[in-house]
Write a structure and sequence with these properties.
Helix content: 40-55%
Strand content: 15-25%
CATH topology of the largest domain: Rossmann fold
Structural class: alpha/beta
CATH architecture of the largest domain: 3-Layer(aba) Sandwich
Order of helices and strands: EHEHEHEHEHEEEEHEHHEE
Number of domains: 2
Distance between the termini: 43 Å
Radius of gyration: 27 Å
Number of helices: 8
CATH superfamily of the largest domain: Response regulator
């Protein structure tokens, strides 16, 4: 994957230096020479990371920074005031490096930020996938509280979603009533042994309305289990 980096720097010599160094590392580089030009570029496409000078013509870097939400931003500036650095880091900058800078250090910081961002996105994607489970061509999304079959979906209550999620995770295995109540108690403390039967009945009807199959089997004296067909 080739990351896209935008340089926002009005000093042509520094901009040329950065472009050459970044392209040698395999990055795709775009450039802007003012804050206003940077905004125009960002309307067309957002980069993976942006290098931002503060003393820009037109719209200065400090005013551009709040408009860069969601974009990794490394400030490169001759301003060395520590209070200013801290303020800008709190206001959204990912890193701050002062001029004159060592190119190899800047490249290392860029690589570290992109690596961290990639890992974070992968973790978020994995966490999101934990909310979705599939069995017998049925897809349960516990975050949306829906169960889907092909192009159709139906809404569940929070208690129904918790029960179905547990049964689908243990597909083919009977689960006792007390086990179900214990496992879902944290998310659905209102569910009782008396109401569990009704919740399961509601789930059975909803699943049958999707694919015509009774997926919840009652096991006499034990509890319930999810079956594929």
């Amino acid at each position: 994957m080739s990351y896209k980096i935008t340089i926002v720097e009005d000093d042509t010599a520094i901009s040329d230096l950065l472009k050459e160094a970044l392209e040698k590392e395999g990055y795709i580089v775009s450039r802007a020479y003012s804050g206003t030009e940077a905004l125009m570029l960002l309307e067309k496409e957002k980069p993976d990371l942006l290098l931002l000078d503060l003393m820009l013509p037109g719209l200065p870097g400090e005013e551009l920074l709040p408009k860069l939400k969601g974009i990794l931003t490394v400030i490169i500036s001759a301003k060395t005031d520590i209070d200013n650095k801290v303020r800008l880091l709190y206001e959204g900058a990912s890193d701050y490096i002062t001029k004159p800078f060592v190119v190899s250090e800047l490249l290392a910081r860029i690589a570290a930020l992109l690596r961290l961002s990639k890992a974070q996105k992968q973790t978020e994607a994995e966490d999101g996938n934990k909310n979705v489970i599939s069995e017998a061509d049925l897809e349960l999304d516990t975050s949306l509280l829906t169960v889907s079959y092909k192009e159709e979906s139906i809404s569940l209550t929070r208690t129904e979603a918790a029960i179905l999620h547990l049964l689908m995770l243990n597909s083919g295995r009977p689960l006792g009533r007390s086990t179900i109540l214990e496992r879902i108690s944290e998310d659905t403390p209102d569910c009782t042994e008396r109401s569990l039967k009704q919740h399961v009945s509601n789930i059975r009807k909803k699943l049958q309305s999707l694919d015509g199959i009774d997926h919840i089997e009652a096991i006499y004296g034990i509890g319930f289990r999810f079956v594929e067909s």
